[in-house]
C-alpha cells in the first residue's frame, strides 16, 4: 500500500506566491466571492480575514485536494511531485484534473510526460477571448520544476560535452504563436477587475510613395480608358493621349429619345432608278422555272443540256425542295436457317464420345496386361479413351443445347 502524502510548506508558499492575498472579499465575474488566497467556498460580501486566517483557509482547501490526489494517482510520488500537483490542481480544479492528460500519464508510469503536459494549461478567458497568460506560463514552469526536482542528492548528471542538446520538433506546440499577455487583477474594492496590459495595436500602415511606379501609371491608364468606354449618359468623353478624338461618340439610334428629338435627322438621298434601263435577270424569280420562254425564247432540253456541257456556268438546275420525298424502306435480309449438317455433326460427335467411353471401359477391364510395360498398360489406355469419350460427349451436348436455345429464341421473336 502506497503512503498517503500531505501538503508541505513548499506547496503552501508556492500557492500563496501566485494566488496573492486579499484581505476583504471581492466578487468574481461569474458572481461568486473570493477572499484570502483564492478561497471561494465560504467567502461572502463584507467578510475580512487576516494573513493567518487566510493561510488557515488555504490549508482547509488543500485537504480535499490531498485526498483527491491520494485516491486518483496510483503510481508512487515523491514529496516534491505531490506538492507540485497540489498547486496545479488548486489552480485548474478537481474536475479538470480528473479529465486531464496529466493524471493519465501519471497512472501510465510516465512522470516526465506528465510534467510536460502540465504546461498545456496556460490559457484563460479575458473579455471573451482565450489567450495565453504570462502569469500562468510562469506558474506552470515553477510547478514543473518542482515536480522534476529529485529529493536529496538524487540528481542525474547530464554533461554537455557528452549529451549535446538537439532541437525537439515534437515539442513545438509548447511555444505559443503569440506573446503571452500580461494581466493584473485589482486587489482593492468589492469587485475584481481584470486589467489587460499591452493591448494589441494594429501595425502602422506603410507610407505611400510619392513617386508613381510603372504599375501605378498603367493602372491609371486602364482606369481612364474604362471610364471612357462606360461613361455616364450625356457626358462627353475625354480625349486620351494616343487616341484620335471621336466626332460622334454615340450613334443617334442609341441616344436617349430627348436627344434624338433635338437634333434633325439627316437622310441620304438614294439615286433615282431609271425604269427604261434594262435590268438583268432575277435568278430567284419562280417564273423562270415555269416559263420555258423566260430565257428569251423557247429552248429544248437537248439545247439546254448542250449549253450546260459547254459552259457549266450558264446552266441552271432548279431544285424543288417542297416536293414530297419518297421513302424507300431498306430490305432486311432474313438470317439463314441453320443447316441440318451442323446438328448431324454434333450428334455424330456425341455418339463418338459414347463409343470412346464404352470402348475404354471395356478395354481397361478385359484386356490382359502387356509384359514389361509399366506406362502403357491396358488400364491407362482404357482410362484415357474413357476420358476422351466423356469430353467429346459433353462438348457435343453443350453445342447442341446452345443451338436449340437460339432456334427457340428466333421463333419467339418471329411470333411477336
Question: How would you describe what is shown here?
Answer:
The protein has 416 residues and is mainly α. Among the domains are: 170 residues, Lysozyme (Orthogonal Bundle); 75 residues. Helix content is 44%, strand content 6%. It contains 13 helices and six strands. It has a two-stranded antiparallel ribbon. A hairpin with a 5-residue loop joins β1 and β2. The model has no long low-confidence stretch (mean pLDDT 76).
Main traits of this protein?
416 residues; mainly alpha; Lysozyme; two-stranded antiparallel sheet; 13 helices; 6 strands
Explain the layout of strands and helices.
Blueprint: H1 9-19, E1 22-27, E2 33-36, H2 51-72, H3 79-92, H4 94-99, H5 101-107, H6 111-118, E3 123-126, E4 129-132, H7 134-148, E5 182-185, E6 194-197, H8 214-229, H9 257-262, H10 287-290, H11 301-310, H12 340-366, H13 378-415
Antiparallel strand pairs: 1-2, 3-4, 5-6
Helix pairs in contact: 1-3, 2-3, 3-7, 5-6, 6-7, 12-13
- Helicity, in percent? 40-55%
Shape: elongated
Mean of all residue-level pLDDT scores: 76
CATH fold type of the domain at 9-153 and 173-197:
Lysozyme
What summary fits the major beta sheet? 2 strands, antiparallel
Write out the strand line-up for the largest beta sheet, numbering strands in chain order. 1-2
Could you state the order of secondary-structure elements as H and E?
HEEHHHHHEEHEEHHHHHH
Amino acid at each position: 500500500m502506497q503512503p498517503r502524502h500531505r501538503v508541505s510548506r513548499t506547496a503552501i508558499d508556492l500557492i500563496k506566491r501566485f494566488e496573492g492575498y486579499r484581505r476583504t472579499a471581492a466578487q468574481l465575474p461569474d458572481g461568486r466571492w473570493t477572499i484570502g488566497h483564492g478561497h471561494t467556498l465560504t467567502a461572502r460580501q463584507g467578510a475580512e480575514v487576516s494573513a493567518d486566517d487566510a493561510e488557515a483557509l488555504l490549508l482547509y482547501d488543500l485537504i480535499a485536494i490531498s485526498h483527491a490526489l491520494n485516491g486518483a494517482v496510483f503510481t508512487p510520488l515523491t514529496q516534491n511531485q505531490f506538492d507540485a500537483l497540489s498547486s496545479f490542481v488548486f489552480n485548474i480544479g478537481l474536475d479538470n484534473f480528473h479529465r486531464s492528460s496529466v493524471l493519465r500519464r501519471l497512472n501510465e508510469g510516465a512522470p516526465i510526460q506528465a510534467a510536460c503536459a502540465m504546461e498545456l494549461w496556460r490559457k484563460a478567458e479575458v473579455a471573451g477571448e482565450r489567450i495565453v497568460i504570462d502569469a500562468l506560463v510562469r506558474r506552470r514552469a515553477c510547478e514543473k520544476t518542482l515536480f522534476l526536482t529529485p529529493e536529496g542528492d538524487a540528481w542525474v548528471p547530464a554533461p554537455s560535452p557528452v549529451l549535446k542538446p538537439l532541437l525537439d520538433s515534437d515539442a513545438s506546440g509548447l511555444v505559443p504563436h503569440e506573446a503571452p499577455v500580461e494581466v493584473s487583477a485589482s486587489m482593492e474594492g468589492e469587485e475584481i477587475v481584470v486589467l489587460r496590459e499591452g493591448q494589441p495595436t494594429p501595425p502602422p500602415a506603410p507610407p505611400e510613395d510619392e513617386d508613381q511606379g510603372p504599375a501605378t501609371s498603367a493602372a491609371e491608364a486602364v482606369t481612364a480608358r474604362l471610364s471612357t468606354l462606360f461613361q455616364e449618359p450625356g457626358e462627353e468623353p475625354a480625349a486620351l493621349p494616343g487616341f484620335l478624338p471621336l466626332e460622334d461618340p454615340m450613334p443617334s439610334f442609341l441616344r436617349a429619345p430627348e436627344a434624338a428629338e433635338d437634333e434633325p435627322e439627316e437622310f441620304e438621298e438614294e439615286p433615282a432608278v431609271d425604269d427604261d434601263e434594262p435590268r438583268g435577270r432575277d435568278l430567284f424569280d419562280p417564273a423562270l422555272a415555269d416559263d420555258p420562254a423566260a430565257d428569251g425564247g423557247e429552248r429544248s432540253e437537248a439545247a439546254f443540256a448542250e449549253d450546260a456541257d459547254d459552259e457549266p456556268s450558264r446552266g441552271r438546275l432548279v431544285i424543288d425542295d417542297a416536293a414530297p420525298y419518297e421513302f424507300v424502306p431498306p430490305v432486311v435480309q432474313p438470317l439463314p436457317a441453320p443447316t441440318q449438317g451442323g446438328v448431324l455433326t454434333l450428334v455424330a460427335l456425341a455418339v463418338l464420345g459414347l463409343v470412346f467411353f464404352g470402348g475404354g471401359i471395356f478395354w481397361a477391364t478385359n484386356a490382359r496386361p502387356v509384359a514389361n510395360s509399366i506406362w502403357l498398360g491396358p488400364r491407362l489406355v482404357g482410362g484415357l479413351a474413357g476420358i476422351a469419350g466423356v469430353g467429346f460427349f459433353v462438348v457435343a451436348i453443350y453445342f447442341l443445347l446452345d443451338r436449340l436455345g437460339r432456334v427457340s429464341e428466333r421463333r419467339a421473336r418471329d411470333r411477336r
